[in-house]
Fold each of these.
Amino acid sequence: MIAISTAKTSRRKKNNAFLENLPSAWFLLPIFIVFAILTVIPLCQTLFYSITDYNGYSSNFHFIGFKNYSTIFADPSLLQALSFTLLYAIVTTLLITLLAIPLAVTLNSAMWGRSFARSLFFFLGVPSQAIIGLVWKFIFSPLDAGVINKILASVGLHSVQWLSQDGTAKFCVIIVAVWMQVGWHATLYLAYLQTIPHDLYEQAKVDGANAWDRFEHITLPQLVPGISVSMFLLMTGGLKIYDLPYTLTGGGPGTSTNTITQAIILRGIDQSNYALGSALASLFTIACIVVIALQMKATDALGKRFA
């Protein structure tokens, strides 16, 4: 009898809570409508077209099953685009995180010109990726007129074909992306650092903690929420990258720095193969969900480690 009474009481509380929150839920209705129109419906259309031979122009199309998906897995250039996109997203996320945290700690310390240094690093992320790509294309030019090759020639070294070889072209795209974004994410970490009470550091100094101990036991645990936000932004931004590789290398040499977004536009729109582009977008969506889920799981593990 007591158990039945407890269950009824719990059910009554849930019903009351639902009725109390119902007016607030109406405020979320416009967001759900916009989300459904701009995301859910296009996603369902993409999945539908991916199993057809739709070319984007004619309404006369047929169901062809999973033929588009088998075409993707048999095309080395599309797999190359998928692998480089994942490589770019993962490597830039790790490098920027490893560089932005110590940079933020440095910018948070008392030093001469601190405000100017903060503004300078933040400015690196302000220009558009397309403009930065064009500027660095001149710097990394494989010709002797390139800035870096001129520097190498001035000290007696041979020029390097920076953007003309697969390995160096990928290296250049990733390095420019790190250079461009590290200041912005350091500013994000800086905001979290300024919320840490200074008394914690003073008390740790009194207890004999050195600089590394203070960083490991005070700074890093307090930065875990910021690390979650920063890595999520980096990972999602890296997976949908388009501007920087397109302007810096044009996807070359060959297709070595071609990204999945470039491949979707090229196959789906430029070559009028909308169905294949839809299949590629569907696979890319699944890959994004898996990568983001793994990243969030890793971030949760990091949070529990420093809790």
Amino acid sequence: MTGAPKDKTAAKPAKAAAAKAANGNGNGNGNGQALARYEIRLSGLGGQGILTMGKLLGQALAIGHSYYVTQTQSYGPEARGGASRADLVVSSEPISYPKTEYLDLLVALSQEAAASYYSYLKPRGALLIDADLVRQSPSSVALALPFTRLAREKVGVPQATNVVALGAVAYLLPFARIEAMRKSLKESLPEKIRDANIKALNLGYQEAKKRLGEPIALPDPDGDDDIQAARMDLTEIMTED
């Protein structure tokens, strides 16, 4: 089967609304932190668990933190080795447009992903890469950890690379709580692989805390006027598709 990557725009307006009603506080997030539109892209190759990573992160932010979250995903026709990505938009308020436009955080687990998507990152956005798989970073200020090597050598399960990276993301996002990520894993994964993945999540979190410095600073909602203007233009174009 051949063809262009499939765009699975399964915009999933989160179960956040239900969770929001359930917690009764009405402040839009479980961490007490209001959040303007925040865009994340998880990217790599088929077989690295990118789509699962997106599902786990989206579920944790929606259910565990009561944010509004949309998730879209795209992958190539190949079962393994083709381009794969999962995009999330996170906000304390209802999301008017579900697709990502200008990324606040780009996670790249392959050289191809880093090269392809870096231009979508905001000027003050953060790039997180697999240090072994992205040999030529498009930015000198990238955050890097050897996710695949950590999964193989410390967890003993190379397939847990995506969850090691998820642990690092949980640390870097200042509005995320690691407890919600653990709960998302426990509720989503089969029991036989649960312990290994919890170990991978904790490992990624601790390695990021040890090696990557402080969590990412949230963007100033009043400091990106040019981007906001461009976003309005882009939205107008894309609604015509």
Amino acid sequence: MEDWTYDSARDLDKDLMARLRGFPREPTMVVYALRSLAALMLRCWLKAVHRFRVNGLENLPVSGSYILIGNHSSHWDALCLTSMLPFGMRHRIFPAAAADYFFTSAPHTIFSSVFLNALPFHRRASPQQSLKICQELLRTPGNVLIIFPEGTRSATGELGSFKPGIGLLLAGSDVPVLPCAIRGAFESWPRGRRLPRLTRLEVSVGKPMRVAPKSAGKDAIRSATRELQQAVQALMEAHDERT
């Protein structure tokens, strides 16, 4: 029988809000339990009320870390992508969320860190440092990083231009990226609407892509970014043609 050792959390000296806003975090058992309960309730709600459906689940890697990217037009987007993954992975899924929006007030911080397990991304203050944290996260096998490369929710539902951050994140790595098309989210819960409409939600998952730029040069970064944007756009158009 192995001997047990006990080490206190490294962020134990910080107050609660500072711990929740930090990353990586060391959650308590209460946080794990609340997140599991929230994930279960969300999956039941999506399935029963929004007839949530996912196409292309067979494309998900069975091992290693990977990145999910998708179009972004609604708060549903991150919730749909996290809910389509196996329930057992719920503590290894990290949606990148804008720190200046999701980690400012106490209610937003608690929801984002406890229930969503979001990674605070400082898109204005220190984006390079946030990219390094993302790269470090992906070095641990079994982690899933969710990123919306448009950087903000679309006001029209159309796919906007991808920011170069996704290309910078991939530079020098071999992490697979899976493009996703999220449909129905804009119609249900667009920007500015307080409560969602009870419309159908659907996600299409594309095949893993390895488009890491061979250099950190601007042209290589732009090329990789453009290729990923085209993949998401193609999935969106393919979905719309089917329906």
Amino acid sequence: MRSQRKCDLAAGAFIAFLGAVVILAASQIRGDADERLPPRTLPYVVGFTTLAGGLGLAVKAYRFHGEDPEIQWPEKDGWVRIGVNLLLLALFTALMDPLGMPITTGLYVAGAIWYMDRKRILAALLTGAGSALVVYYLFIRFLELTFPLGPLGQ
């Protein structure tokens, strides 16, 4: 019988290793003591989250001794949905500099919600606008992070 257990163990160990590398690299980032949020904070969060996820996957695979569950791969509609979301992420990245982080975030969130549930256009627009406001006031005004502002910075 073919088992995914060894693959999950190896993948978990590799992901945990990547998390440890990110943590090690983040510890080398220098920042000013005057900054509210040191520049290594986000890499630390990503590194510890990746390390915990990898360890969790490895431990879960190590403790699993039953039959492998059948994997439910997405059908054609699911693949299209994944492709559209990847396209939206590519547009989000491409438009970040010219439009700025708040506007791009609002457009991305509204577009993704609208694509997933086209009946709720008003909820998509309101959630996108709320996301843009949160990004602007929390990350740019309150935490003073340096994200692109686009037209809002002029």
